Amino acid sequence: MEIKIGIGVDQVKFGMVRSEVLQILGEPSEKELFSYSEEEEDLTEVWHYDDNEMSLSFDEADDWRLIMIAASDDSFTLNGKDIVGRSFEEVSSMLLEMGIKETEVEEVSEFDKVIKIESESLNIWFDNNEASELQWGPKWSDDDTPIFP
Q1: Using CA atoms, how far apart are residues 8 and 13, in angstroms rounded to an integer?
Q2: How far is CA 91 from CA 60, 70, 115, in A?
Q3: pLDDT tens string 86-137
Q4: Domain of 73: which CATH number?
Q5: Which residue in 21, 46, 47, 74 could disulfide with 32, CB within 3.0 to 4.6 Å?
């Protein structure tokens, strides 16, 4: 499944409502509803698709539109290259080859880190120096306004 930066993955696009995603992917394996803060209208619903190790997040603040995708299966590719399972060094080199130079590396723990690419709304998580998950979303016109395709 090809990751489309700022757009989505395959036929699933950021900005879609839940019913549109349901028509494409079917029922998720599990649904979660939670809040990242104590604000009243800050709910997020996450749909987990266990078969392809993918999660989709819909935010109440964005009228329940698809706002983030996370994937941990090696079938997901970025510019035709598989990322999950690759070393930190391999992924860093691939990103440079793709022309992605502005990255930030955050050490999460002694063994875990994340490459954050704010300009692309993309995070690549590493466990023990191995890429374990990709998270991506739409691009943003400002801190509060997503640009949906």
Answers
A1: 4
A2: 33, 17, 9
A3: 999 999 999 999 988 888 998 888 779 999 999 899 999 999 999 999 999 9
A4: 2.60.460
A5: 46
